[in-house]
Amino acid sequence: MNTANMSSKDIIKDLLLRLPDEVSLHQITQEIEFIAAVRQGMVGLDRGKASQLSK
């Protein structure tokens, strides 16, 4: 799924629908943190900060 134009809330809704029912709150938190880090990295790339990310 392309999440580039999705709101943060919609991304989390999609995540929750895809995770198994047995998932722990800790695992959900880890998934959200990973998604947030990836989105932050993408914003940095869009702003031309790719050289800073590779250091």
What topology does this entry show?
Layout: H1 8-18, H2 25-46, H3 50-53
Radius of gyration: 13 Å
Distance between the termini: 29 Å
Structural class label: mainly alpha
Fraction of residues in β-strands:
under 5%
Q: Give the averaged pLDDT, no decimals.
A: 86
In short:
This protein has 55 residues and is mainly alpha-helical.
Structural features, described:
With 55 residues, the chain is mainly α. The chain has 3 helices and no strands. The longest helix is centred in the middle third of the chain and has 22 residues, at 25-46. The model has no long low-confidence stretch (mean pLDDT 86).
Q: Features of this protein?
A:
55 residues, mainly alpha
